[in-house]
Request: fold
Amino acid sequence: MTKPFNLPSCLTPQEVIALTTWTPTDPLALRNLCMIRLMVNAGLRSQEVLGVRLSDLNLDTGQLLVTRAKGRRQRVVWVNEDDLKLIRAWLPHRNMLVQDGHDELFVTRAGKPMHSRNLRKMVKSVALLVGIVRDVHPHMLRHTFATDLLRQTKNLRLTQKALGHAHIATTTIYTHIVDEELERAMKWLRRG
Reply:
């Protein structure tokens, strides 16, 4: 099968486990784990995770209103209970850091909103910390979420909605990943 274009890179299941189950040793490491888990488990883009506001998240239901910077489109995603527990643990530290009353959930040591270059650097350093030696970047976490969701649900429309894609054609890139995996599996099964 010829690839019509470069397919997005995804994490392996072992890499996902390593990246999402390490134990944070300080408040900023806890913040980092929360952000990584939101990108892997809810499919948030870099700017979306940086833009999460306390007022967007219902800690009781796990409902999160995600606003995309480009076009100001919104979608609702759900945060799982384990991730909500981590966020609840981060909140007291966040509240101690924030002095000017802004609403961003994830802030720097100085209590200011984070920048995308800091997020990219953080994801790379955490990946190295847990033993992933290849180049891991924030959008790879979103690709991993999308691929895993499509594998689980086999529903392209649901995956489109979860990702917030305006057009389903954008989402179809993930079918190529699943098709490539099917091809490898079927070739492996062929017998003499």
User: Anything to note?
Assistant: The chain has one domain: 13-189. The longest helix spans residues 81-97.
